[in-house]
Amino acid sequence: MESIAPVPLKHKIVARNSPDHLNTVEETRSERPISAEAFGSDLIWLIKQGSDPSVLAETARTLQDDLKKAALNPSRLPYVVKLADDFIGEGLGESKTEVEVDLFSDKWGEFTDKIHGATSLIGKTEPAAILQAISSLDTEQITELIIFHNNNFEKSRKAFEEKAPAWKNEFIQKAQAAIDSGQLPITRQQLEDRISLTNLDLGDGLGSPTSTTDRYGTFEDSTETAVIFQQTLREATGKKTFFHELTHAISGRAINILEPGQRYEGAGDNQRIGLRFLYPGSSPARIGLHWLNEARTESLAAQIAEVGATAYPSERQLFSLLLTSGSQPLDQKLFDEAYIEDYDPSLAPADRVPKWKAMYAAVNQAYAPGFLLKLDQYIKAKDLERIKAMLQAKSNAERAKAAEQPGGVEQALAQIQQNWRVIQEFKLLPRAA
Ligand SMILES: [Zn+2]
């Protein structure tokens, strides 16, 4: 029988408060600058160094390619649009004088026309339009856009440094209230211990143009860092996003290290965080139950913040359906207890993740043996089909069209509403040898 209990890798799983883990967090933390950098900061650095124009142009072209990739990514496209909108709105007002004496001033009108034309089309959600606009910019125009973006990021960094400590305190207080009302199955001591390990950081939503996993912020478990994107900070839902990342911080773990004092294999390589776990290997498909982890994280964060949930709507809807579509209803508490549970390596193997086992057994009972993993595989296979269609597209327009197709979670939603047994019987294509 398949088991959802963490699969032992060739590494050691240690307790969260073990010296091994604390040392590793300390080491990875010192290797990584705590403040993440803005998209394109490498170009700014080169400009300050007085680098050769050909080097600057090449770097600008790479950034242009990254922006094009971001425009094709539904999680990143809003940030490309925001960048263009801000540049038209703020950039024109604030830096017009600078721009007039600027090397690129004669191109200003042409530039705003291109970007503005594209962003008004984006209102109609057409990635192809912004893609085309970005493609049409020359390296000087891209450079201007990157300078503007980096100046904005610095302003946000200051705002974040002011806001973050107060938000963190508010999170702790509200989480305690949620514990007291029975909505959050964690002890006050666990909450305190887990939050005290957590770093706070500002990130850039444009920073990972192809990543689809993090829409508003991210949590880096290898450095215990909650990152909120600069673009999100300014939104009304900014605080909720911050709470979402802190909810990841207090979720359960199976912490994976190589040897005492050695660093993780890569960022985020803990064997489990919350309900998300890793299969052995290095394929992107090794991430298990990402959708479920985000669904619960967002709902718990919204509950703690006492606001409505906003992120991961399809994932949350799929979770609701999972609770009610089987032969018997499932208790949400089972999932939340598993979400909070730390893997305890000091206990006998059979006793290390009792809440996980209870959750998994309940899903088996309501559906069929292994259903939770089948559902996860189904979602990943459908996502992969969509990505393949994007890669095989012959034109940008075709690629943008493929990007707009429903993702794996949406397809699973439709299927579970119709007949969940199709998911149970779903056969993965055999892996290429
Ligand atoms: Zn998340």
Describe the SSE topology.
Elements: E1 12-14, H1 19-31, H2 41-48, H3 53-71, H4 77-94, H5 96-100, H6 108-122, H7 127-136, H8 139-180, H9 188-196, E2 199-203, E3 217-220, E4 225-229, H10 230-233, H11 238-250, E5 253-257, E6 272-273, E7 276-278, E8 287-288, H12 290-305, H13 313-324, H14 332-340, H15 354-366, H16 371-392, H17 396-403, H18 408-418, H19 421-424
Parallel strand pairs: 2-4
Antiparallel strand pairs: 1-5, 3-4, 5-6, 6-7, 7-8
Helix pairs in contact: 2-3, 3-7, 3-8, 4-6, 6-7, 7-17, 8-9, 8-11, 11-12, 12-13, 13-18, 14-15, 16-17, 16-18
Bound molecules: zinc ion.
The site of zinc ion has 4 residues, from α11 and α12.
- Strand content bin: 5-15%
| Rough outline | globular
Radius of gyration: 23 Å
Structural class, please? alpha+beta
Ligands in the model, by name, code or SMILES, are: zinc ion
Can you characterise this structure?
Helix content is 58%, strand content 7%. The strands form 2 sheets. A 5-stranded antiparallel beta sheet has the order 1-5-6-7-8. The longest helix is centred in the middle third of the chain and has 42 residues. The chain has a domain of 110 residues. The chain has 433 residues and is an alpha+beta fold. The site of zinc ion has 4 residues, from helix 11 and helix 12.
